[in-house]
Amino acid sequence: DVKVTQSSRYLVKRTGEKVFLECVQDMDHENMFWYRQDPGLGLRLIYFSYDVKMKEKGDIPEGYSVSREKKERFSLILESASTNQTSMYLCASSLLTGGPDTQYFGPGTRLTVL
Amino acid sequence: GENVEQHPSTLSVQEGDSAVIKCTYSDSASNYFPWYKQELGKRPQLIIDIRSNVGEKKDQRIAVTLNKTAKHFSLHITETQPEDSAVYFCAASMRNDYKLSFGAGTTVTVRA
């Protein structure tokens, strides 16, 4: 059974703070993803990684960075949080290399930036 | 990149009736079309997917149809039950691409 966990369910930060969101998967999946979920906008891809130390921009990377030092862990970093980054953040992982595969999601982190 | 549009945004059905959600995509190279269900307060989970070499796929009360010529695909839920109430997301992806492009979601409410 695939398990994807995220470090926090709820997080409140102040404008300008540096924010770290952590995601861990325990199934040796190759690919990991960070999305933000906003009402009426669906799931929008921020960054993804298909291998350790590899990363690629998604559709909305501005204001975010990522780190993948170990295969099981993928971190999302908000260098200087802003109020428009208040959102639900979802991490996901998938196994297959070379193409799309089932994505397994974490429980999400609801981030509020004041 | 791929653009996926999903309709309707909300859908209310009587228990036992059918529900249909439609999605269109822009890139003819897309060939993988999954559907995810997200119950209130829960994480999205895959419920069914279809690849471009198949026109229809069924799994008990849910089915997905694909029309590659028209670039649209649909989710059909028959004999709806209260536990079908959730947000449903369609998505599309191209061969050799790990990324999924998601639709905006459809909130389905099944009335008892």
Question: How would you sum up this structure, described in words?
Answer:
The complex is a heterodimer of chains A (114) and B (112). By secondary structure, chain A is an all-beta fold. Helices cover 0% and strands 53% of the residues of chain A. In chain A, strands 2, 4, 5, 6, 9, 10 and 11 form a 7-stranded mixed sheet that branches. Chain A has a 4-stranded antiparallel sheet with strand order 1-3-8-7, with no helix packed on it. The model of chain A has no long low-confidence stretch (mean pLDDT 94). With 112 residues, chain B is an all-beta fold. Chain B is built from no helices and 11 strands. In chain B, strands 2, 4, 5, 9, 10 and 11 form a 6-stranded mixed sheet that branches. Chain B has a 5-stranded antiparallel sheet with strand order 1-3-8-7-6, with no helix packed on it. In chain B, β4 and β5 form a beta hairpin. The mean pLDDT of chain B is 94. Chains A and B meet through β4 and β5 of A and β5, β9 and β10 of B.
What's the short story on this structure?
The complex is a heterodimer of chains A (114) and B (112). Chain A is mostly beta strands and 114 residues long. Chain A is built from no helices and eleven strands.
